[in-house]
Request: fold
Amino acid sequence: MGVKITRIMKLFYGILASFILLSGTMTNAEAQTYKIYVQQIPQMWKKTFDQVLPNAFQYWKQKNPDVSFELTKYPDPSDFVIEWSSQFDESKTGHYSSDTENYYDKPKFTVPLAYLKAGKLKTVSPEFATEIAKHNLGHAMGLSHSDDPKDIMYPQIENYESWMKVNTKVSPKNTTGDWKPKAEKLQAQLGKKIDASEAKFSALIPSINSTWTTNKASEAEMKKAQNIIFVGRKLVSDAESFKVDGDDLLSQAKYSDAYYKYLDSMNRIKSLDAKITEIKKMFNKAISLESPK
Reply:
């Protein structure tokens, strides 16, 4: 009887731990060690990307101190495998797959280091590779996608160059000049711009989500539009967050810092406007493909 109750309790706590993981947020669930086999990184990129996985591991350890990671010498004892990609298509950013029908017979995910564009191999930034590693490590641990654009598990789908445009930090060119009026002027412009662009973006979403497609060509265009909506939501979230940070800095009389924080926010909104244009083109193309000739 005691053994049966113990088994039931173990099953209960196992289900509870799984529920916590799948909720999209790591908490202090029961301690767990993930065994990982990591493919050897190409020597030419070892120095540049050697901290990608340690930083990704540290990120999740901070989320849950009871989680640990152990590297294995061989794939067999591992829970999953991490590969490095050096020639992925520019539209892809790495992915996790639970399918074990592969060379390792294990779930695996890929971290991109470089990509081909116009026949030339271009290296990504270590920061980009780390973000991909953190996201896919979450999947490997059982986390699903999150609806929160600020969460690392948010399904942001875009290529490396698009990511760079909105994640390259704006650095002050100088520290001279009267920053207060500059910051206040940009603050006023930004408030109106965020509201206007967010309204345009929000107005598109119902049409994209409610339009049915009946052929593969139009379905493909609609799918691309839906993917860009994920990126747009992230841009809106970032723009609003940077605006709040700028307001806080302005209230502290840190005028130059506030100005550049507002500039970061404005750059996100400009990127959002470009995404809105892309979504409209894809939607219109999908509709035209549905129309009889």
